[in-house]
């Protein structure tokens, strides 16, 4: 049932992942990251998404420790950065993330980008960590269909999650259909289009009809499309507002209007053409 902030989806290995979480990309390390994660957990969030690249894993770990919520009730995601794929130091990178987070395990570990000629070797390391029960689930981020097919040609364990840029202007219908058939859970980063969608007239009209904000409408659209979503915010009021999406439902006509906004418009890098 999608009726609360703790509602979750079962990944194909049976692990439950909350539909809704907090992203901490570009959230400054230290007090800002610490307080925003603590505010989110206090507001009922149970999923926190970080990455080695974000350089705030220590703050996230500290917030988890100070939150008073038992570790097993939280779902913590982090990611291995491209440099570690290129240096064949994925396992060392994982150990570093674990140490910074101050945790014994992470719930989800992702390959951050499909680094050419490197992600299949990296996946072998993630499979090893998974078999050793050091991670509860493994997945990928920013993988297109051909990347996943290439990965699965030599994988023993199928990815459980694919986290990609996904919002109404870039709604990725083909990738979503493919992942659904493969039982790979799709997850949206930048679900609000990095703030660029918050004055869209079509979304404004739908939001007004429900007495909700545009952000709430987009996040509700995610949930109703069975997309795990992790909006980022550092303001308490916004953290609470983003999560207040379980008391209304978008009609099929609302959903169709939002689906029709797709322009395949990326605001982030192209997974087939990135240079970092």
Structure explained in plain terms:
- The active site is at residue 54.
- InterPro entries: AKR, AKR5G, Aldo/ket_reductase_CS, NAD(P)_OxRdtase_dom_sf, NADP_OxRdtase_dom.
- Substrate binds at residue 112.
- Keywords: NADP, Oxidoreductase.
- It comes from Neobacillus cucumis.
- The chain is α/β, with parallel strands linked by helices.
- The protein has a single domain, classed as TIM Barrel (Alpha-Beta Barrel).
- The protein has 11 helices and 10 strands.
- It has helices at residues 31-42, 57-67, 82-86, 90-101, 119-131, 145-152, 173-181, 201-210, 214-224, 236-243, 252-259; strands spanning 8-10, 16-18, 22-23, 47-49, 75-80, 106-111, 135-141, 161-165, 185-189, 228-229.
- An 8-stranded parallel β-sheet has the order 3-4-5-6-7-8-9-10.
- Helix 2 crosses helix 4.
- It is globular and about 50 Å long.
- The model has no long low-confidence stretch (mean pLDDT 97).
Short description:
With 276 residues, the protein is α/β, with parallel strands linked by helices. It has helices spanning 31-42, 57-67, 82-86, 90-101, 119-131, 145-152, 173-181, 201-210, 214-224, 236-243, 252-259, and strands at 8-10, 16-18, 22-23, 47-49, 75-80, 106-111, 135-141, 161-165, 185-189, 228-229. The model has no long low-confidence stretch (mean pLDDT 97).
